[in-house]
Amino acid sequence: xxxxxxxxxxxxxxxxxxxxxxxxxxxxxxxxxxxxxxxxxxxxxxxxxxxxxxxxxxxxxxxxxxxxxxxxxxxxxxxxxxxxxxxxxxxxxxxxxxxxxxxxxxxxxxxxxxxxxxxxxxxxxxxxxxxxxxxxxxxxxxxxxxxxxxxxxxxxxxxxxxxxxxxxxxxxxxxxxxxxxxxxxxxxxxxxxxxxxxxxxxxxxxxxxxxxxxxxxxxxxxxxxxxxxxxxxxx
Length: 235
Fold this sequence. Notes:
The protein has helices spanning 26-35, 90-95, 116-125, 127-153, 156-171, 185-192, 196-208, 224-230; strands at 3-5, 37-41, 46-48, 56-62, 65-70, 76-82, 87-88, 102-105, 109-115, 212-215, 218-221.
């Protein structure tokens, strides 16, 4: 069960400058503060479920969120992650379609909820905010298209290398210089599009070849350039 907390102030939010709300003026931020609510979700709690209709926009104040879809046979398919400053649920609101993913807190997370009427008012009245939303939509579409192409054209090992680099770019590094997110081998296999046993073997191969170091669920990248070459990523 989520816990309602006092709304963090948008004007002093540390992640706002990197979010779609970066262009809002002081009066708009005050209005946003009055309209929104904020809840804390414990690790493993569901924020919203696929198939439901969103009543507003979800913004990650802090924490890490997994967005996944249930495939055939009930198997989970991870679509993407959201972290501090990211927004969720906007595609469904813009298209008036059900949510295509379930959002689950990977660790304790604070999520702000912005009602639909407030979101659409910003879309209609602020061209800079509309442009930010358009750029975000295009960016996510480009990422989804690239991942779809990778699934068809790259080997499992190449996809794993690219996924590790993407996780580093998304979450950064912790105090031990490891990727700052802990995923099970099953979740990694889910993202790469292969069996769990295959991912365990591929991670072991990357370790033997000096690309990574494994510390339980933690993964340290030792050769970023080598991983990029393996994944055939553009410079």
